[in-house]
Amino acid sequence: MSTDKIIGINPVHEALKARRPVQRLLVSDQRKQDRDVQAILRLARECGAEVRFAGREALNREAPGANHQGIIAIAAAKSYATLDDILALPVQRGQAPLILVLDGVEDPRNLGAILRTADAAGVHGVIIPERRAAGLTDTVAKAAAGAMEHVPVVKVVNISHTLDELKKAGLWVAGAEAEGGMVYWQADLVRPTALVLGGEDRGVRRLVREHCDYLVSLPLLGKIGSLNVSVAAGILLYEALRQRS
Fold first, then answer.
1. Range of the domain at 140
2. Domain limit, last residue, from 59, 76, 93
């Protein structure tokens, strides 16, 4: 079985809460009496995970350069969801679908930040491309602060074809673009919606843009012509949450 390292208090805690299979915990001797770590150890016992205590140097060797906060979990590799999985979720919850599509986000810290916001805003799933994009790594898990355990992520070969599948399922596809035809708060995000954001450098690619039903823009009044993709995602998702509330 392939494995992932889950690094830090929040990511490890959320992985155990989500009942992700954890083979082993490595805990710093200096942190084992801390309240947060004690809560993790209780969950580990419930899950039957092996716990090892070691000096901080051992954890530094296990995760060189990482801010591990005195705890590392060795877990089964995070599996990707399917398109059917994320389309079934809103049906189960009696909600209108809200899907986030990322057309080539390459910075794992951005992807982690987006997953954290997606969890907070009630997104039913995130779709990423198979190539030229960040995947579900330990860096993403750390930046997501545990949200990666709760937001289903689908990896697809072709974003444009996937948008067509979402349309067939009854979703409206809105792309975020600087030259969008309407300001984002004018869009109807209460209806079933897939929001499409582009990568850090190129934005939404032309072919993907052509598969969107409409384009929305975020006003920019300063000298800089774009926003960080994780910031843009947060603005759009919370506008959807506001409208749906």
1. 83-244
2. 76
